[in-house]
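Quick one: sequence plus pyridoxal-5'-phosphate SMILES, need structure tokens.
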Amino acid sequence: MKQYALDTHLVHTDRLVNSPEDGAVHTPTSNSVLFEFEDVADLEAVFQGKKAGHVYSRSSSGSAVALQNLLNELEGGVAATVFSTGMAAISATFFSLLRAGDHIVVSQFLFGNTRSFMQALEGFGIEISFVDISDADSVEKAMKENTKLVFCETIANPVTQVAAMYEIGDICERKNVLLIVDNTMTPFVMFNSKAVKSSLVITSLTKYIAGHGSVLGGVVVDTGLYNWENYSNISEKYKVPDSNLWGMTQIRKRGLRDMGATLAPSSAHAISVGLETLKLRMQKSCENAMAIAQYMQSSDEFKRVHYPGLNVHPHHTRAADIFGGQFGAILSFELADGLDFRAYLNKLNLVINATHLGDTRTLALPVSTTIFYENGLTQRQQMGISENLIRLSVGIEDTNDLLADFKAAFS
Ligand SMILES: *Cc1c(COP(=O)(O)O)cnc(C)c1O
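Reply:
Sure thing.
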């Protein structure tokens, strides 16, 4: 597959990697929960991991494995596991790999539900240092003897802080610490997590990858860069012959089989269809986001715009360096003093007031009263979230139609 450009891969990988029967170009959806074996010795061998196959679809199914193969190939990994949602991928990974008494270093700028999940982890005896991941020194300084992993997002939602990805990757490599990156905001078509030495890449498939607001999913990919022989929490049971697969084996057994947040076969199919147009959609959404950010930046009706594509953004140069000339499709803004954001949002016609992001449609959402409400004022301030901040997830509509909608809502 390597001889083709990414655009080509995206539309041909399913056919070429999974070789579906009957000349089908999509892997057919398989809905069987159970699997029959003519020879019971084969059933035993699959159970024991000595032979490939499926025994029960909570653990694996043809549809889930086909999507895993695609995402693993496209991300350049050694193994991948799909889950029912992005949060399932995150929680299963952390619960599989951590034990009470471990310490982890985590970005202080996180997706709201991930931030809230971290509080649950603390309840299980895991010590967390929350740090400003736009400053690599603060990541290094937070590390301790018992630090098991570092976790960050690439571009934070909603204030768009950009992680010092190259520097953090170097620090983790030097210190032999697992680096887990949530790459939902900048999926592999715009950011190569492996190039910054990520060990595991987690992506919510619900967002850009599926793209059409009709299906939930998540994935964790192992890039093969981390040496699991250095990770003290791998159970003897999961030390398979290839040590590259130790981490993923433990995630699959504990995180998927035992916790049970399995991706449905029909969802796997819908996600793989969405994936085919990911690059085109991402390009258009990024272009639209840049145009909207520039308009807002130059207009007196807006007090503040956060978008890494603007050269006034504090991490603009870094973003230009690591995201291949694109800057993502999330931006956030505050209206000028005296303007009521609720009245403004209610007057938008095309732009939809809704949570979610990475959709084909442009979505607007006040954040302090919704997705970051439960986090409280102190955490919001730590994340740089002001009380009147509006988040936009920019879609693939015509640029001028979007600009006209934002302008007309003032009249
Ligand atoms: C949405 C999102 C998630 C969670 O994904 P779901 O599929 O909604 O569970 C995790 N991380 C980031 C950065 C997200 O935007």
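Residues 278-297 form the longest helix (20 residues). The radius of gyration is 22 Å.
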